[in-house]
Design brief:
By secondary structure, the chain is an all-alpha fold. It has two domains: 59 residues, Winged helix-like DNA-binding domain superfamily/Winged helix DNA-binding domain (Arc Repressor Mutant, subunit A, Orthogonal Bundle), CATH 1.10.10.10; 249 residues, Fido-like domain (Fic-like fold), CATH 1.10.3290. The protein is built from 16 helices and two strands. The protein has a two-stranded antiparallel ribbon with strand order 1-2. The chain is globular, with a radius of gyration of 22 Å. It starts with 12 loop residues before the first helix and ends with a helix.
């Protein structure tokens, strides 16, 4: 039976209004009561407590001088209505157009990207997954590893526009036989995923500590044979579907990657590391191609290094995944990507053993 996660809930209208007021200036409970004269103080206190627990607001001062202010991480985590957001065309959306230099500090201040309930559910799912692994014999484990690798290689490639079917991918990986009417580049992309994942599995603890060298290694494995240079992007780039503009020179990109490595090594949980990686390696756009592929494999390396099951992304909707990434590019909001991450972890923990 599938365990259900406690996603950060949709805020009620009153809580949303409180956040908007606190974005304007800090407020005491007495100040807020003036705004909600028809709401009992106990109800208002409950709203404040919920917002505090979610990390969206902070308490300052003591006793009668107590006030509340918006937390810097609020914009990172507060849920956004994705359907409403993407109703507006690309040129109508009000976005943060450039790279946010404060983004790494905001992630640090979040302390954790997940609620306590979400973390408990992660641990329950992962425990059940590991118990199945320990009970399985070597033949079963090997078969499941092969199935996982095929599904990861297929879906991660499909997200990038690869037209191989999952059955074609199975034949390619198991028999080295290319599908008819498919390009050599598509076959390379899939086989590169397998090689990169096999490389991670050889020594998962290698990724307990990160460096720029390790990111370059994975990028190199994922892009070999595809005409992509394994070096930092030396020129500006535009991204389809958004007016967000990544950093536009190699030195800034290198500085951002060092900031990313510092952050990932600062975060202690493989779950936080994996989700931050999915968002930030795509956001930086360090390479001319292969950024999102590298982010997905790097996220899996973070999970495996901390004893968690990896994600195949098999059941993810490619368009929803792209929306989640664009939402982070444009608003530095990770809520939808986090929801998809949780769903994919639940799927993987319930469907594989490696």
């Amino acid at each position: 039976m599938s365990l259900k996660f406690g996603y950060m809930p949709e805020l009620n209208k009153r809580q949303s209004y409180i956040l908007k007021e606190l974005q304007r200036q800090s407020q005491s409970i007495a100040d807020l009561q003036l705004l909600f004269s028809d709401v009992k103080k106990i109800t208002l206190n409950r709203d404040i407590k919920s917002l505090l627990e979610l990390g969206l607001i902070e308490k300052i001062g003591q006793a009668r001088a107590t006030k509340y202010q918006i937390a810097k991480v609020s914009n990172l985590l507060v849920p956004i209505n994705v359907a409403e957001y993407f109703k507006d065309d690309i040129d109508e959306r009000k976005i943060k157009t450039g790279f946010n230099l404060e983004i790494f500090q905001i992630f640090k201040e979040a302390k954790s990207l997940f609620t306590e309930l979400e973390i408990r559910n992660f641990e329950q799912l992962n425990s059940a997954y590991r118990q199945r692994y320990l009970k399985a014999n070597k033949i079963s484990r090997d078969k499941e590893l092969e199935r996982f690798t095929i599904e990861l290689s297929w879906k991660s490639s499909k997200i990038e526009g690869n037209t191989y079917s999952i059955l074609d991918t199975e034949v390619l990986i198991k028999s080295a036989k290319r599908a008819e009417n498919k390009s050599e580049e598509e076959a390379f992309m899939i086989l590169n995923h397998k090689e990169a994942f096999d490389y991670i599995l050889k020594e998962p603890t290698y990724y307990s500590e990160w460096s720029l060298k390790k990111i370059l290694e994975l990028h190199s494995l994922l892009t070999q044979g595809l005409g992509v240079e394994n070096k930092l992007r030396p020129h500006p780039v535009a991204i389809t579907g958004t007016n967000y503009r990544p950093l536009d020179n190699q030195w800034q990109i290198e500085e951002a990657l060092h900031g990313f490595v510092e952050l990932i090594n600062y975060l202690k949980s493989g779950l936080d590391r994996a989700l931050a990686t999915l968002a930030l390696l795509s956001y930086i756009q360090a390479f001319e191609d292969g950024n999102k592929r590298t982010s997905r494999l790097t996220a899996n390396a973070c999970l495996l290094a901390d004893g968690y099951c990896p994600l195949s992304f098999r059941s993810i909707d490619e368009n929803e995944y792209k929306k989640a990434v664009l939402l982070f590019y444009e608003q530095n909001n990770i809520s939808y990507l986090k929801q998809l991450f949780i769903e994919q972890f639940e799927f993987a923990a319930n469907n594989y053993l490696l």
